[in-house]
Structures are given as C-alpha cells and as structure tokens.
Amino acid sequence: MQKTQLPKIMKDFLVYLTTIKGKSQRTRKEYEYDLTLFFRFHLAMQNDIEIAQIEKINIATITIEEIRAITLEDLYLFMEYCEVQRQNSASARARKVATLKSFFKYIKGKRRLIEENPAEELETPKIGRRKPIYMNMDEATQFIEGIQIHRASPRNYCMMMFFLNLGIRVSELCQLNTSSIQGRYLTVIGKGNKERTVYLNDSCILALKNYEQSGKTTYKGEGEEPLFISQKGTRFTRQTVAKIVKQINKQSGLQKDRLTPHKLRHTSATMMYKAGADIRSLQHILGHSSVATTQIYTHIEDEQLQHVLENNPFNIVDNS
Q1: Label partner for 32 (CA 20 to 30 A): which of 1, 67, 79, 84?
Q2: Known catalytic residue at 284
Q3: Which of 101, 191, 196, 246 is an active site residue?
C-alpha cells in the first residue's frame, strides 16, 4: 500500500506534537489519521468529488490559502459526516475535535499562518460516563489462581501483580526495563513521557524475586534489557499482554466479560480507593495529568449506596 503523501504544514505539526508536546507515536498516528480524513473530506466537498472516493484523494498539494478559507461550518459538516456516514461514536468524534483544535491552534499561535481560528468555537461532543468494568476481590483472587503452572507462570504472575497492585498501563508495563527497578521503587514512563516513581509493596517484591529466580528468557533485542521478556526473547507488545490476560481469564474459569489489561488497572484503582486512598495519591499512582480523570474510579456500587441509605438513623418507619 502506498504511503499517503502529507502537506508540509501537516508534517511540521506532527513533528511538533512529538518533539515539543511530548505526544506518543500512537497519538501522533491518530492525529495524522484524523487530519488526513478531514482534508480529504474538505477537498471532496470543495471539488464535488464522490464521498465514496474519499480514500483516493491526494491531500499533499493542499495550500495554506485553502486552509485559511476553512470555516467553522466546514468543521461542523465534517463532524456530521463522521457521525452519520462513518457512524463514529461520541468519543471518536471527541478525539477528532481535539485533533482539529490542536492543529488550528498550532498554525495560528505558533506559526502565525492564519488570523482566525475556525476550531476555537468547535464544541466537543458530550460523552456519557461509562461505569468502569472491574473485578471484585473474589474475582481477582480467582483470576490470579488461574495462572497455570508452567515455565512462564512466574513472569505472568509478576506482570499481573504489577497491574493489580500498581495500576500501571499496559504500555507502561511493556516499556519497563531492568534498570527501572531501584530497590523498592519502580520508575514508570507514562503518557507524554512523564516520569513517575511508584512504591513496590511486598506482593510485587515477592513476585519479582520469584520471576528473576525462575530463569528469565535471554533478551535477543537491542537497547536496554526489558524487565519482562517474551518467550521469543523480545520486548512484550500491548497485544501480546492482552492475549495473556485473556488466556488467564479463560483458564481461571472466571470468564469475566471484556477483561483486558486496562480493566486490571480499573480493578487496582477501584480497590485502592475503597481501601482509603485519597484522590490526590491515586492521581499520582495512576499517572493522571488531571484529577478529573482519576474521579471515574471514585464510583461506589449501587448496593453500597443502598446499604448506606437503609442504615440512615432517620430511616424510621412509623407503623402506628
């Protein structure tokens, strides 16, 4: 498949995202996809090109003069196309809004190439807060007991302990190196290359010791030695870790619906909050830039709320 040719201003913006803003390569790819789709759609509308042919439109020749002519109404039209014809969810459209806002802010504020920012008044679609999926203590215990005994089990057990005790992201786990461990502390590189240090409790220390003594696979790659090494001698990918979680979920007999590494993070955060962790501590442990993100873990189950209300001292029924 031929690589899509991009206009220079878009290339400059993508470089700015990673080198200055510290965005990950994954985020950069998402922004590139969103902008490519937007410019293709815009050119299709301007030149009466069939929308079915949108993937064939070349955006490499788009000029700054054409970009200057883009209006807020053009952005609304694009968002309508994403919702109606592409059937994008509210969260998918919200990401596209963020992409457009970031791009137009860059070409106006940093490059001074436009006088008016059409995306300034572009609203983000409302996203309904979904209740996080997580395991309760009994389910988590059953899940852990489902790690079958074979050569890889000390490694897999250690990875699951890191998820459940530290609440780290799967991408963060994959990036861990042997040098990330300093005594009882673990250095984690989070989103935007932000570094944080988390404490290793006794469960993590014991799991790590057993893993290291089990005869780790020799690393066959380049660069720093990963903390967790696949049986092929390579650094783990997010997809491979997800397969391990899925396999343990099945082997344990738990069969928890849609259980992923991210749901293990949800489980960790929820359990820490229920155990008394304050919101600011939880924010640091999870590596959230905004406390608003952390607050999704402060949900309390309906049954607990019901129990509190039932036991309210003023819950007195006069049957006389």
Answers
A1: 84
A2: no
A3: 191
pLDDT digits (tens, 9 = 90+) for 258-292: 899 999 998 999 899 888 888 889 999 999 887 77
* 307 tagged catalytic: no
The pairs formed by 48-53 with CB atoms below 8 angstroms and a separation of 24 or more are 51/81, 51/85
Residue 181 phi, psi (nearest 5): -95, 125
- Express each pLDDT in 111-132 by its tens digit: 999 999 999 999 998 876 666 6
Q: Sheet harboring 195-199: ordered strands across?
A: 181-182, 185-189, 195-199
Per DSSP, 14 falls in state H
CB-CB neighbours of 234 under 10 Å: 14
Question: Which residues, 6 or more positions from 167, have their beta carbon under 8 angstroms from its beta carbon?
Answer: 265, 268, 269, 272, 285, 286
Output the pTM of the full model.
0.64
Residue 288 annotated to the active site = yes
Mind listing the pLDDT tens digit for each residue in 9-29? 999 999 999 999 988 888 999
The half-sphere exposure of 187 on its side-chain side, counting CA atoms within 13 A, is 11
Query: Which pair of tokens denotes residue 190?
Result: 């989070």
265 flagged as catalytic: yes
- Candidates 40, 93, 155, 169; catalytic one: 169
Burial of 17 (0-12, 13-18, 19+ CB in 10 A): buried
For 104, the token pair is 């137009």
Does residue 301 surpass a pLDDT of 60? no
Give CA–CA dist 260/262, Å, rounded: 5
What is the C-alpha to C-alpha distance for residues 83 and 79, in angstroms, rounded to an integer?
A: 6
Decide: helix, strand or coil at residue 197: strand
Q: Are the CB atoms for 35 and 99 separated by under 8 Å? A: yes
Q: What's the whole-number mean pLDDT along residues 85-95? A: 92
Residue among 229, 207, 209, 227 at smallest CA distance from 219: 229
Residue 96 and residue 285: Cα distance in Å, rounded?
A: 29
For residue 169, the one-letter residue type is R
